[in-house]
Amino acid sequence: MTEMPALFGLAASLARHAAARQAVVATNVANADTPGYRATDLEPFSPGARDDGMRRTHPGHLGAEEAAARRVAIEAVANDPNGNNVTLEDQILRGIEAQRSHSRAVTVYSTAMDMLRASLGRR
């Protein structure tokens, strides 16, 4: 039964990553007409990416730096004449990917909770 908390942690990490990615996409869309703005995205979710032995002991610790450190520039998109490289179609697709990741994380969490309840006889 030691794997259940790890599964909950994994689902929570995926949900946090999806929420952070959705915020990055929203920022890109908000700056779609800003001259010189360069679109960014987060690196793909990796379950063991933050496995350096550090643990959060306070909600303010390791929070902002964690999401900001994983931001990457989007280079494969052509620039507008004003130097902006935000393409709304691309951002819509990235937002959909983030929404699907979040839904997947919630489904995994919910299913794990159902399994835990069933094992305790509290269906």
Structure description:
- By secondary structure, the chain is mainly alpha-helical.
- It has 3 helices and 2 strands.
- It has helices spanning 3-30, 64-69, 88-119, and strands spanning 40-42, 71-73.
- α1 (3-30) packs antiparallel against α3 (88-119).
- The protein is elongated.
- It starts with a helix and ends with a helix.
Q: Topology, pairings included?
A:
Layout: H1 3-30, E1 40-42, H2 64-69, E2 71-73, H3 88-119
Antiparallel strand pairs: 1-2
Helix pairs in contact: 1-3
Taken from the alpha-carbon principal axes, the silhouette is elongated
Total helix count?
Answer: 3
Structural class: mainly alpha
| Poorly predicted residue ranges | 64-69
Give a short account of the largest sheet. 2 strands, antiparallel
Taken as a percent bin, the fraction of beta residues is under 5%
Q: How many strand elements?
A: 2
Question: Helix amount, in percent?
Answer: 40-55%
Brief overview:
This protein has 123 residues and is mainly α. The chain has helices at residues 3-30, 64-69, 88-119, and strands at 40-42, 71-73.
